[in-house]
Amino acid sequence: MKKKIRKKEYLSQNVYEETLKRIRYIYDSFDKVVVSFSGGKDSTAVLNCALVVAKERNRLPLEVVFFDEEAIHPPTIEYVARVAENKDIDLHWYCLETKHRNACSNEEPFWYTWDKTKKDVWVRDLPKQAITEHKNFKKGQSFQEFSPFLYDRADGRIAMLTGIRTQESLRRYQVIARKKNDHYINSSSEAKQNQYRCYPIYDWSSEDVWLATAKFKWDYNRTYDVFNQTKLFNDYLHQRVCPPYGEEPLRGLWLYAECFPEMWYKMLYRVAGVATAWRYGNTELYSSAKSKPDHLTYEKYLHVIIDSYEDKSKNDVKKSINKYIKAHKRKTKQPIKEEESHPVSGVSWKWLCSVSIRGDFKGRQSSAMNSNAIKQQEKLGITLDEALIKYK
User: Fold this and answer.
1) CB-neighbour burial class of residue 129 (10 A; exposed 0-12, middle 13-18, buried 19+)
2) 15-215 belongs to CATH 3.60.21.10
């Protein structure tokens, strides 16, 4: 039986004070508290709130882990270096050969940060604080595969404080809203290693983050100042500090070219397809399936797209697409339509083409199915219950 996603409720509590309460509870409940730090605005809020409680509990220095993804904005590197100099912080600066998505190319759909075999084309040199090995890390693992083993079970129960906020996406909201109690503490597969992901600022808005930064005079990543000198001015949800070559981030490659030209020159030679993605990442070629050949249906075009991948990646994309097709069949006996999303499943052949173009190697489009279905229900002027009666 599926768990129901609870509706958002807006309360009058001060989110900053509530976050401190959550972190105090976490300190009372876990043997070790660690901040997972990205250098972005959200993890900055988590870091500073955790510092307040760590000082209260006489638990300094605060342990912080940062995974350096090589191709990151220069102000981010400078900011993390400043954090590392804080005497109240014990920062572990990891530069491991981790696997990342390269949505710029179907022929080379993954790239590896700090790949020693490609040292001559690294975007930048290793920082002096770099930790390049970990006893539990296997070369080529993704961060998701490795992170549960960052600590050993002998270290006790570990709380990893992470700056996930539900405002940013439906998928992130679902992660938290499915839980009834301690909903900011996620007992995922990582819990098998006694490690738990905790989201103490899950209910903050972007405005809350920046208000706290100004009010408490927190240091922050100056990349955001650069963003605000471009067309992303005050566009909080698209001001992202993350690896540049994934499905969503590649749409921001122009920022590197426009604002960090020296680094951009090196990025062009780092992974396959970057120059093309830079030119066309915000066009139909990368963002949708609207440019299909006229003589093909979307269903047939889907096979053409999948065949454009190399063998291993092709199988991964097939698995992802088949998952969505099976989900449609579980929800309705009606056939998948060409262009219109089904009001119950949210699936169409056109949408499946769009998903396959973007790869979806992480299988994150389930929430998009729900959104598609809701939009179609609104278009038809019916409720979900009416859609279930009529189309299921």
Assistant:
1) middle
2) no
